[in-house]
Amino acid sequence: MEYKDISPSTVTEELLREMIMELKDGDQLPSQRELAEKLQVSRNAVKYALARLQKEGDIRVKNRQGIRVNKKIDVNLLGMRPLSSELGESNEQIQQLSAKVINTPNSLESFFGSTNKRTLELKRLRLYKNQPFSFEIAYLDAQRFEKLVDFDFNNYSLYKALKENYGVQPTYGYETITCVLADESLSRTLQVEEGKPLYQVDSFNYEENDVPVEHTVQYLIGSNFKYHFKAKNIFDYQEDL
Prior knowledge:
The chain is of the alpha+beta class. Helices cover 25% and strands 34% of the residues. The protein has seven helices and eleven strands. The strands form three sheets. It has a six-stranded antiparallel β-sheet with strand order 5-6-7-10-9-8, covered by helices on one side. The chain has a three-stranded antiparallel β-sheet with strand order 1-3-2. A two-stranded parallel ribbon has the order 4-11. It starts with 7 loop residues before the first helix and ends in a 13-residue tail after the last strand.
């Protein structure tokens, strides 16, 4: 088998990633000429490497503002921390878009139970540093959590409301993550161009004794997030079947 040398632009890209890791969101990188001198590579290698990093959303390049670091929100798939803690509450805003009782969707009958005919649908938009980054739709048992339909969820946690008003706190759940393209509605809500890649995260959360609490469909702007696995002991980790 014949192996090819790694291209200069690929080497430059990896060097730039290491540099970005040491910087903060919004920090400015040196100019292309300065980067080429510092990394001892050609200007073309720097140019192509920066183009890839910009396409992946790791940097922002604007006229008269130079090259700026664009830190993605890094989420551990095996962690149980709420998203608000990943973002830092001082950076996050939550806007309630709607709350209403609807007929339970057929797709959720197996989750809530066939006797549950009415479901509370809560739509919220999360902003990070004043920019939309997540649109989510939460579904709950309307009969059990009836008064939440009139609750003000602007800048207020759903789980906090469940705990304070009902003494309910989900103890476990599971998620599925897929990639979708923004349709007209998601494009308008998240203020992104139509067809932009998004993460779709479907969460199913339960109390002890397998009592269902909440199902959420969340749409996250793909260029702002990265997901990773971080298990302390992979031999102790196993998936429930």
